[in-house]
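A reminder from the course coordinator: this example appears on the midterm review sheet, so study it carefully.

Given structure:
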């Protein structure tokens, strides 16, 4: 079975600008969703009287870990491997 090709990539060429912009928008949406979920969860915990400092610190750390992953994904989209490898 042949390997699936990603849209916009032909024979290892860098993705087209339109495809890269589309990927960046998806990453931004994912990041905004993470922040919104974090805020909503925190608000629910505080207003519900279920607030725990240790859980808040854990949730906060996970938020930043996930945002760092999103940043890495964005950098990989903006600077494709073929461009990074040719330095």
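Designed residues:
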């Amino acid at each position: 079975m042949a390997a699936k090709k990603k849209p916009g990539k032909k024979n290892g060429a860098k993705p087209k600008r339109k495809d890269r912009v589309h990927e960046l928008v998806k990453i931004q949406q994912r990041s905004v969703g993470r922040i919104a979920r974090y805020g909503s969860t925190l608000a629910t915990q505080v207003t519900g009287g279920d607030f725990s400092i240790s859980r808040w610190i854990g949730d906060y750390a996970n938020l930043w870990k996930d945002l760092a992953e999103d940043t890495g994904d964005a950098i990989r989209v903006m600077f494709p491997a073929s461009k990074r490898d040719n330095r």
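Residues 17-85 form one domain. The two ends are 35 Å apart (CA to CA).
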